[in-house]
Amino acid sequence: MTAVTATSVDIPTPDGVADAYFTHPDDNAAHPAVLFYMDAFGLRPHLNGMADRLASSGYTVVVPNVFYRHGRTPVVELPEFIDPGQRPEIFEKIGPIMQDLTPERAVRDAGAYLEWLATRPEAANGPIGVTGYCMGAALSLRTAAAHPDRIAAAAGFHGGGLATEAPDSPHLLAEHITAELYFGHADQDHAMPPEQIERLNRALTEAGVRYRAEVYEGAAHGYTQVDTASYDQDAAERHWTELLALFDRTLKSAA
Q1: What is the rounded CA–CA span in Å between residue 103 and residue 168?
Q2: What global pTM score does this model have?
Q3: Residue 234 catalytic?
Q4: pLDDT tens for the chain, residues 1 to 255
Q5: Residue 37 β-bridge partners
Q6: Are residues 27 and 240 in contact, defined by beta-carbon separation less than 8 angstroms?
Q7: Is 70 a catalytic residue?
Q8: Number of C-alpha atoms within 13 angstroms, CB side, residue 234?
Q9: C-alpha span between 102 and 119 (Å, rounded)
């Protein structure tokens, strides 16, 4: 693990300015870039720490506040530790904000994030990786489909709603994806039940996408998030093993 340098940055988008967390190895070199999509709880110390861990493995990472249309971080005030009893009240505030991030807006924003990364000397020229958590898994999938020429790898962990029956469900974009994908689904996740996992797998297989999808047995939705009651250390470490393996073979090998 190498030392990292981190800072808060502002990313211009067609709809405004997204504040973001930016972290990279502290070695004055360019490294493969990764777009890191937050979960619904947003930018906070724990998520920044995850980005730093990824950067310490040799990547230049940006974590945008995808809710920027509703304000700078923190968009919603959160307790230091989120327990199940607090979730209904928190999601009463977050729910409408999530709904406001339409697929069209998300894709528009993704282009802005990628363009911003292309201007950074800390980011190497070449393919980019994407990872997303909770709602961020759908954003990861949409970004891979919208930018097949840029995205070489995309991952999603404890994602929700990836293969619904809605006409704009993320899985319907499979034919546009050229990246290698990895999904670490949570076990018995109401947001991603077995029928959706099967539907996603079928769409990716029929489109000829290179992917691997696994269900982390016993792991709850949100298992990577140490500041919530859903955290599962074993599942979280498994996620790191798979994510770094994906990026190492698709991004570093191309550098």
Answers
A1: 8
A2: 0.98
A3: no
A4: 789 999 999 999 999 999 999 999 999 999 999 999 999 999 999 999 999 999 999 999 999 999 999 999 999 999 999 998 888 999 999 999 999 999 999 999 999 999 999 999 999 999 999 999 999 999 999 999 999 999 999 999 999 999 999 999 999 999 999 999 999 999 999 999 999 999 999 999 999 999 999 999 999 999 999 999 999 999 999 999 999 999 999 998 766
A5: 132
A6: no
A7: no
A8: 6
A9: 26
Q: Which of 189, 227, 232, 239 is catalytic?
A: 189
Catalytic hit among 109, 134, 147, 227: 134
Token digits for 14? 């067609």
Catalytic option among 24, 31, 221, 239: 221
Of 241, 235, 243, 165, the residue nearest 200 (C-alpha): 165
Number of Cβ within a 10 Å radius of residue 123 = 23
Closest CA to 84 of 246, 245, 231, 228: 228
